[in-house]
Design goal:
heterodimer, A: mainly alpha, globular, B: mainly alpha, MetI-like fold, 13 helices
C-alpha cells in the first residue's frame, strides 16, 4: 500500500512541476509586452516601466525567473493583482469558499438524484422507467448548461418569481464572513430570513452546475449496477430468499459504488469548468467568475495564479481518488 | 494469398463490413434517429445560403424583436421571429449550423490526427519517450478543458479560429491515451509478432499492421468529441471568447440575447435548442457507433 502511494506521489510531482511551468509560461507567451498591455491606454513613464520590469523579474535569465516563481509558489506567493493590488493567493482563498459551497451543493444534488435514478433504471432494465430515465440522462449530458441556466431563469425567476437571478444573498442582509460558506454564516448571524435567502440564491446555480454530473452519475450507476446484478453472489442472495430491496440496495449497490465513486471524484474538473459558466451567469462571486473577469480585465497575474491553483486542486483530488481507490480495491495496487 | 484462396466460400457468405456495421448500428433505434437528425444538420450546413430566407446579417429595422409566427404579433415572414436588431432568427440559425459543423469537423480532425500520431509514437517508442509523453498529457489533463481553452484564447485573441485551435489542443490528450492503450494491447498479439518476424519495418508495423485494429475506440471517441467541441465552442462564444458578433454562431447569439431573456423568450430559446438537438443527435449516434464498432464497450 505504501509502495502504491509513493508511486502515485512520484507521478504527482513531475505533473505539478509541469503545471507550474505552464502557468509560468502563460505571461511570457502573450503577444506583446505584458507590462505595456497591463498599463493599458494610460501608458506609463520610462521609470515606472523599469520599476515594473524589476518587480516582475523580467530582467533576469528565464531559468532564474522560473526558479524564483517556483520558490514563490511553494511559499504561497502568486504575485499581486494588477487591478486590486492584493495578493492573488489571498483573493483566491477569499473567493474559493463560494465556489466550494456551490460545487458541494451541486455534487450533493447530482449524487442524491443520480444514484437512485441509476439504480431504478438498472433494476427496471429495458422497461419504461429505464428508457425514460436514460433518455433524460442523455439529454442532461448533452445540455449546454449556459442555455439551461437562462431557461431556468426565464421560468423560475421571470415567470414565477420564485428565485433571485444573481448573487449569493439579498443585499438586505449583512453579516461578517466567518466560514465563507453563506449557508452556515447566514445561520450563525441569526438574522431572520437570511438563511432562506441564501438557500433561494443557491437553488438555480446548484441545478445548473449539477446537471451534467447528475447525468454522468446516473448513467455510470446504471451500467455498474447491471454488471453487478449479473454476478453469482447476487443469484445466491436471491436463492437465499432475500427481498429484492435488500439485494439491490445492500448487496448490489455497495459493489456498484466503486466505479461510481471514481466518477464522482473525477468530475471535480467538470465542476470547476462548469463553475466558470454558472458563476458568470448567476454573478456568483467565486473562482470561475473571478477568472473570467480577470481574463477580460487582462489581469494576468490573477489568471496565472488562478490557473495554477485550479489545476493543483484538480490534481490533488485525483490523487486522493486514486489513493482511496487503492484502499477500496486492492487489485489496483499491484498494477 | 493462401489464406484468401483457402476460404473463398466463407467470405462470400459473410456480409460486407459495412452491412455488418449497419446491422448492429440500426439495432439501436436512438442511434438511427440521431443519424437522421445529424444528416439534416449536415444538409443545413451544406446548403445554408440556399435554405436561409434572408441574409443572416440583414437588419429589418421595422421588425425588431418580432415574436415567432404562431404567437400574437408574429408573421410568417419571420417564422421564428427576429432578434433585437431585427435580424431573422431562422436565417441566423441555419447559417449558424455551418459554424458548429465547421468547428466539430476541424477540432476532431486536428485532435484525432495529432493525438493518434503521438499515441502511436508513444506506444512504439522507448520507455523514456513514452513516459515523457504521458506526463505531458497528464499536465494538460490537469486543467479543466474549458478553462484551458479560455486561457489559450486569451493568449491567442478571441476568434472562432483560435477557439477551435484551443479546443483541439485540449482534446488531444484523450486521443493520445486511447491510441496508446490500444497500441499496447495490440502489440502483444501474435499477428504483430508474425508481421515483425516477416520483416515489416517500424512504420509499416505502426500504420498498416497495428493502427487499423486500434481504430474502433478512436472513431467512437471522435463522434463524442464532435459534440463536446460544439458545446465548448458555443460556451466560448457565450463568454465572448469565441466567434465575435455579428457572426451567427449559436453560442454568440445566446450571449447577445442575454439581456432580452425576460422580454423575448425566442431569442434565447432557439439558439440553445439548436445546440442541444445537434449535440444530442451526435451523442445518440456515438452510442450506436460504440455498440456497433466496439462490442467490448457495449453497455448492456
Amino acid at each position: 500500500m505504501i509502495g502504491y502511494f509513493l508511486t502515485r506521489l512520484g507521478m504527482f510531482i513531475p505533473t505539478f512541476l509541469g503545471v507550474t511551468l505552464i502557468s509560468f509560461m502563460f505571461i511570457r507567451v502573450l503577444p506583446g509586452d505584458p507590462i505595456i498591455v497591463m498599463a493599458g491606454e494610460r501608458g506609463m513613464t520610462e521609470e515606472r516601466y523599469q520599476e515594473m520590469v524589476e518587480k516582475l523579474g523580467f530582467d533576469k535569465p528565464v531559468l532564474q525567473q522560473y526558479w524564483d516563481y517556483l520558490v514563490g509558489v511553494m511559499q504561497g506567493d502568486l504575485g499581486e493583482s494588477f487591478v486590486t493590488k492584493k495578493p492573488v493567493w489571498d483573493e483566491f482563498f477569499a473567493l474559493f469558499p463560494a465556489t466550494l459551497e456551490l460545487s458541494l451543493c451541486a455534487m450533493i444534488f447530482a449524487v442524491a438524484l443520480g444514484l437512485p435514478a441509476g439504480v431504478i433504471a438498472a433494476v427496471n432494465r429495458g422497461k419504461f422507467f429505464d428508457r425514460a430515465l436514460m433518455s433524460s440522462a442523455l439529454i442532461g449530458y448533452s445540455m449546454p448548461i449556459f442555455w439551461w441556466a437562462l431557461l431556468l431563469i426565464i421560468v423560475f425567476s421571470g415567470n414565477l418569481g420564485w428565485t433571485p437571478v444573481s448573487g449569493r444573498i439579498d443585499l438586505l442582509y449583512y453579516f461578517p464572513s466567518v466560514t465563507g460558506f453563506m449557508l452556515i454564516d447566514s445561520l450563525l448571524s441569526g438574522q431572520e430570513g437570511a438563511f432562506g435567502s441564501a438557500v433561494r440564491h443557491l437553488i438555480l446555480p446548484t441545478i445548473v452546475l449539477g446537471t451534467i454530473p447528475l447525468a454522468v452519475i446516473a448513467r455510470q450507476t446504471r451500467s455498474a449496477m447491471l454488471e453487478v446484478l449479473g454476478e453469482d453472489y447476487i443469484r445466491t442472495a436471491r436463492a437465499k430468499g432475500l427481498s429484492p430491496t435488500r439485494i439491490n440496495g445492500l448487496h448490489a449497490l455497495r459493489n456498484a459504488l466503486i466505479p461510481v465513486v471514481t466518477v464522482i471524484g473525477l468530475s471535480v474538473g467538470t465542476l470547476l469548468a462548469g463553475a466558470i459558466l454558472t458563476e458568470t451567469i448567476f454573478s456568483w462571486p467565486g473562482i470561475g467568475k473571478w477568472m473570467v473577469d480577470s481574463i477580460f480585465r487582462r489581469d494576468y497575474p490573477v489568471v496565472q495564479g488562478g490557473l495554477l491553483m485550479i489545476a493543483v486542486i484538480v490534481m490533488l483530488v485525483n490523487l486522493l481518488v486514486d489513493v482511496l481507490y487503492g484502499i477500496i480495491n486492492p487489485k489496483i495496487r499491484r498494477r | 494469398m493462401a489464406e484468401v484462396s483457402a476460404t473463398p466460400t466463407k467470405s462470400e457468405n459473410r456480409p460486407s463490413a459495412l452491412r455488418e456495421f449497419w446491422y448492429y448500428f440500426s439495432e439501436n433505434r436512438g442511434a438511427v434517429i440521431g443519424l437522421w437528425v445529424f444528416a439534416a444538420f449536415v444538409f443545413c450546413a451544406a446548403f445554408a445560403p440556399l435554405l436561409a430566407p434572408y441574409d443572416a446579417t440583414e437588419q429589418f429595422r421595422d421588425h425588431i424583436l418580432q415574436p415567432p409566427a404562431w404567437q400574437e404579433g408574429g408573421s410568417w415572414a419571420f417564422p421564428l421571429g427576429t432578434d433585437p436588431l431585427g435580424r431573422d432568427m431562422l436565417s441566423r440559425l441555419i447559417m449558424g449550423s455551418r459554424y458548429s459543423f465547421f468547428v466539430g469537423i476541424v477540432v476532431v480532425c486536428v485532435a484525432v490526427s495529432g493525438g493518434v500520431m503521438v499515441g502511436l509514437l508513444s506506444g512504439f517508442a522507448p520507455k523514456w519517450v513514452d513516459t515523457l509523453i504521458m506526463r505531458v498529457m497528464d499536465i494538460i489533463l490537469a486543467f479543466p478543458s474549458l478553462l484551458l481553452a479560455l486561457v489559450l484564447v486569451a493568449i491567442l485573441g478571441p476568434s472562432l479560429t483560435n477557439a477551435m485551435i484551443a479546443i483541439a489542443i485540449v482534446f488531444q490528450p484523450h486521443y493520445v491515451r486511447l491510441t496508446r492503450a490500444s497500441v499496447l494491447a495490440e502489440r502483444q498479439k501474435d499477428y504483430v509478432t508474425s508481421a515483425r518476424v516477416a520483416g515489416a519495418g517500424k512504420s509499416r508495423l505502426m500504420f498498416i499492421t497495428v493502427l487499423p485494429n486500434c481504430l474502433a475506440p478512436i472513431i467512437v471517441q471522435a463522434a463524442l468529441s464532435f459534440s463536446t467541441a460544439i458545446l465548448d465552442a458555443a460556451a466560448l462564444g457565450f463568454l465572448g471568447m469565441g466567434a465575435q458578433p455579428p457572426t451567427p454562431e449559436w453560442g454568440t447569439m445566446l450571449a447577445e440575447a442575454r439581456e432580452f431573456i425576460l422580454r423575448a423568450w425566442w431569442v434565447v430559446t432557439f439558439p440553445g435548442l439548436a445546440i442541444l438537438v445537434t449535440v444530442l443527435a451526435i451523442n445518440l449516434m456515438g452510442d450506436g457507433l460504440r455498440d456497433a464498432l466496439d462490442p467490448k464497450l457495449k453497455r448492456s
